Amino acid sequence: MRRSHHALKPNSFVEDKDTGELKRPHHVDLKTGMYKGRQILTPKED
After folding, report:
1. How many CB atoms lie within 10 A of CB 29?
2. Cβ atoms of 42 and 34 closer than 8 Å
3. Which of 4, 18, 27, 41 could form an S-S bond across to 33 if both were Cys, CB 3.0 to 4.6 Å?
4. Alpha-carbon distance 35 to 24, whole Å?
5. Is 15 exposed, middle or buried (0-12, 13-18, 19+ CB in 10 A)?
6. What Cα–Cα distance (Å) separates residue 39 from each residue in 11, 36, 42?
7. What is the mean pLDDT of each run of 10 residues along the chain (46 residues)?
8. pTM, whole model, 2 decimals?
9. How far apart are CA 21 and CA 15, in angstroms?
10. Distance between terminal CA atoms of the chain?
């Protein structure tokens, strides 16, 4: 009963405004390298 707050919750995803793909909130999009509208990482080239 004491540890009832330790239960795992499902991951939440939001739809990206630009690409329309699902991504985790408050995380860098690894495909585009964008975070909060700013370029943080250089995008990976396929």
Report:
1. 17
2. no
3. 41
4. 11
5. exposed
6. 25, 9, 7
7. 85 87 88 87 77
8. 0.58
9. 6
10. 50
